[in-house]
Amino acid sequence: MADDLLAIFTVVYEVLSAAFTTLRSYQALRVGATRELQTQKKGLTYLVLEQGILVATTRGKEDKF
Fold first, then answer.
1. Sign of the C-alpha dihedral, residues 37, 46, 41, 59?
2. For residues 22 and 53, is the Cβ–Cβ distance under 8 A?
3. Planar angle of CA 9, 7, 21, nearest 5 degrees
4. From CA 22, how far away is CA 40, in angstroms rounded?
5. How many CA atoms lie within 13 A of 47 on its CB side?
6. Cα–Cα distance between 63 and 53 in angstroms, integer?
7. CA distance 45 to 42
8. More confident residue, 57 or 8
9. pLDDT tens column, 26-51
10. What is the pLDDT of residue 65?
11. At what angle do helices 2-31 and 44-58 cross, to 10 degrees?
């Protein structure tokens, strides 16, 4: 029972963490929208958003090969 609960809370934590990080990165990019996109792509905020989306969309797919 405790192991199942821990697994559920871990998944919930990971999903909320990814969602909040993506949301905050998007907000930061939107605020800095006055700069050119090429300049933003060199920034840390863009990198965090890009890697967060990459990890969120590929997590668990390595088990299917």
1. negative
2. yes
3. 50
4. 15
5. 4
6. 19
7. 9
8. 8
9. 787 777 666 565 666 677 777 777 88
10. 42
11. 140
Residue 14 token pair: 């990971």
Token code pair at residue 16: 């909320």
pTM of the full structure: 0.53
Unique residue bearing structure tokens 């998944």? 11
Sequence-separated (6 or more) residues with CB below 8 Å from residue 28: 45
Phi/psi of residue 35, nearest 5 degrees: -80, 160
Q: Which two tokens stand for residue 22?
A: 């993506």
With a CB cutoff of 8 Å and minimum separation 6, the contacts of 43 are 32
Written as six digits, the tokens of 27 are 């907000």
